[in-house]
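Journal club prep, shared notes

We agreed each person brings one worked example of a sequence with its structure written out as tokens. Mine is Methyltransferase domain-containing protein. I'm keeping it raw so we can talk through how to read the token line rather than staring at a rendered picture. Sequence first:
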Amino acid sequence: MQPKEKIITTYNATAESYAATRIDELSKKHFDRLILKEFARLNKDKGICADFGCGPGQTTKFLFDAGVKNIVGIDISPGMVKVARGIFPYIAFEEGDLLVLPYNESHFASAVAFYAIVHFDYNQIGQAFAEVNRVLKKGAHFLFSFHVGQETVHFDKANDIDVDIDLHFLQTERIQELLYSNNFKIIDTIERFPYPDVEYATKRAYVWAEKF
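Then the structure, token by token:
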């Protein structure tokens, strides 16, 4: 289990450089744009949408532009939230821990979480799914992504900034099992290879689920 303080410290330190290098990343990822547009089409009029682990807000902004005007970006890092608010002042951004979300039951009508679980072990991921399920309305859609694999990679540098953090590659089958055990049903599961010269060289998985 990775202490959340490590995650907060890392992303506070790298928030500005992360935004500078990632804020336009979706323009180079056509599959991500396709699936996010379809998610927006189906969920834009259902109520408030949460973007968990929003970072500097690139996915939040994409969904906003795709018609999801009632959206809030949520991140554990105060530094990331500050940067996101500075770049997109017309979108709501809040601090929140995915393992202990500061919202009432059935608060959100939909949620996304692109790479928000990659610093968690499987026990923590189960806890995160339970929390997401708790704050979603019945029938709400939950779309998220992660790196596929079995290894854990340690980083001590990110954009030439000193960090101390682990990145977990995850097995799609185990993630699906955790979803089922936390009262989600799966609508779609898709894996793809990384985009050369754009992404870290790992296979990616996207899971679209629905709360029972």
